Amino acid sequence: MEAVEPVKITEIDTFISKGKNKHFVIKRLANSDMLLTEEKIRLMKSIGNQYIGKHYDIYFNWSDEKIYCTELAWKIFK
Fold it and tell me: Which residues form a coiled coil (predicted)?
């Protein structure tokens, strides 16, 4: 999922192809086994799905009407 215009699910190959020289980095969340329970993952997916189709917020306002990339990540992981 990425907050582009509009927020959408993007296939990993498509996401990678957008990077400069197709460069990307994968990082692991410390203590993910304790933090990301099956219930928490279901909740995060549900929250994320609520934003699919929302427009990208070029003004970086904190609202649910439009959303920008960091805001999307924060709202899903909070």
Answer: none
Residue 54 belongs to domain spanning: 2-77
Q: DSSP for 8-33, please give it.
A: E---HHHHHHTSGGG-------TTHH
Cis-peptide, bond into residue 6, ω within 30° of zero: yes
**Burial classification of residue 72, based on how many CB atoms lie within 10 Å of its CB (0-12 exposed, 13-18 middle, 19 or more buried):** buried
Angle at 46 between CA 3 and CA 35, to 5 degrees: 95
Convert the pLDDT of each residue in 42-57 to its tens digit.
Answer: 999 999 999 999 999 9
CATH no. for residue 27? 3.90.1720.10
